[in-house]
Design a protein that fits this description.
By secondary structure, the protein is of the alpha+beta class. The chain has two domains: about 55 residues; about 150 residues, Glucose Permease (Domain IIA). It contains three helices and 16 strands. Helix 1 packs antiparallel against helix 2.
Length: about 220
């Protein structure tokens, strides 16, 4: 397992801040032994959580030629028909994945193909579990096409805590199923839009793993 490059500055600054806060506490505020223990424990846990958030675990991709893999770790919030307003502008099957702060936040391509569309949209930071977050929140939309019939749109959506979406693809890029797309910092959501005739393989409440879990088959 390694740490994502996008987290290096945040990790360094955060650990430095924790170190300085600890020094100030020792010099000016250290008091009862049990208060000291609680303070040190909080600092250690805080530092560990920040480092852990940017982890990138090693995974072997579960390549499924006619399948769509989960682009993110998390829990299925909903599965059902929905109108895709940005690119397809028609009815699609929408699968929403909620990523808690404890999930791995690196995203991956759900299938192999060519990047047909990508667009970043600034926005708000309402709770990612709310349906309106898909439209109102900061988000980045990506469309991967294998051919004219097999296309997947997935949307990286910032959440209440998230403050930045990192996304690498550009139109025309040829990508492989399971390769890294980017990441969403600190809690978020990913929506996946599939053709209406796709065979969905997950249900609301299911836990999914990026690069491993099959969401649906063409």
């Amino acid at each position: 397992m390694k740490l994502h490059q996008a987290g290096r500055i945040i990790i360094i600054v955060s650990l430095l801040a924790i170190f300085l806060a600890t020094i100030c506490y020792v010099l000016f505020l250290a008091n009862l032994w049990w208060v000291n223990v609680v303070f040190y424990a909080i600092m250690i846990v805080l530092g560990a959580l920040i480092v852990r958030f940017f982890r990138v675990p090693y995974r072997i991709v579960n390549v499924v030629d006619n399948g769509v893999l989960a682009p993110a770790d998390g829990t299925i919030l909903s599965v059902g028909p929905a109108f895709e307003y940005e690119y397809f502008k028609d009815e699609r099957i929408k699968i929403s994945i909620f990523m808690s702060i404890h999930n791995v936040h690196v995203n991956s391509y759900p299938m192999s193909g060519t990047i047909e569309y990508t667009a970043y949209h600034p926005g708000k930071y309402v709770l990612a579990k709310l349906p309106k977050s898909s439209v109102d929140n900061e988000h980045n939309t990506i469309v991967v096409a294998r051919n004219e019939q097999e296309k997947v749109l997935f949307r990286q959506i910032a959440g209440f805590i998230a403050r930045r979406i990192i996304s690498y693809p550009e139109v025309g890029d040829v990508v492989k199923q399971g390769d890294e797309v980017g990441m969403i910092k600190f809690g978020s959501r990913v929506d996946v839009f599939l053709p209406l005739d796709a065979q969905v393989a997950v249900a609301k409440g299911d836990k999914v793993v990026s690069k491993k879990t099959v969401l649906a088959y063409f």
